[in-house]
């Protein structure tokens, strides 16, 4: 039963023995017409409005670490995760962010780049950050170990948070859809209503998780400066 349930997350589309499901990762770009970038329209205005809001918020979080273009990578990360989360709600579209392979591929390079930059350019600051101010001398060795472990598990927590949230909603909708065959007409109507509510909830989760992952990445970057 569990194997069949989790099989909805398995890549199943192949072409010449190559898994094609991962192409859905860039599927969001196909929904943006060429005229979108040239002719101002309501979609462009909405995109520009969201980008400016994100830019101002990331700029505030970065504070003194901000420089021209530094928020662009985080805005791009937000839209990339959002497109993958949202498109995964449509039937027969593979949700790449429900796999740790994809989530770790996003979080690990970011974390490694932040750590390398921090330890190479701001070594003293990184050592100071290992011990919070006011820590008793007897607790300093333990605080170094705790801070080191918390830094090491950061990419894993980012990846697991995104993957677990995307899997949970999909599994719940799959479980509900499998029970509809043994229900009466009125119960099916109620089940459809619950499915619609779940779709709305999952749409909100797709946005919230994109925002949370991006905000945490921004905070991790601000800590190394």
Automatic annotation (TrEMBL):
Entry membrane topology: Multi-pass membrane protein
PROSITE patterns in alphabetical order: ATPASE_A
Subcellular location field: Membrane; Mitochondrion inner membrane
Keyword Transmembrane helix: yes
A GO molecular function held by the record: proton-transporting ATP synthase activity, rotational mechanism
Signal peptide extent: none
Keywords: ATP synthesis, CF(0), Hydrogen ion transport, Ion transport, Membrane, Mitochondrion, Transmembrane, Transmembrane helix, Transport
Domain of life (superkingdom): Eukaryota
Residues spanning the membrane: 20-39, 72-94, 100-120, 127-146, 188-221
InterPro entries referenced in this protein's UniProt entry, alphabetically: ATP_synth_F0_asu, ATP_synth_F0_asu_AS, ATP_synth_F0_asu_bact/mt, F0_ATP_A_sf
Recorded GO CC terms: mitochondrial inner membrane; proton-transporting ATP synthase complex
Subunit architecture: F-type ATPases have 2 components, CF(1) - the catalytic core - and CF(0) - the membrane proton channel. CF(1) has five subunits: alpha(3), beta(3), gamma(1), delta(1), epsilon(1). CF(0) has three main subunits: a, b and c.
Family label: Belongs to the ATPase A chain family.
Function field: Mitochondrial membrane ATP synthase (F(1)F(0) ATP synthase or Complex V) produces ATP from ADP in the presence of a proton gradient across the membrane which is generated by electron transport complexes of the respiratory chain. F-type ATPases consist of two structural domains, F(1) - containing the extramembraneous catalytic core and F(0) - containing the membrane proton channel, linked together by a central stalk and a peripheral stalk. During catalysis, ATP synthesis in the catalytic domain of F(1) is coupled via a rotary mechanism of the central stalk subunits to proton translocation.
Listed NCBIfam families: ATP_synt_6_or_A (TIGR01131)
Protein name stated in the entry: ATP synthase subunit a
Organism: Bombyx mori (Silk moth)
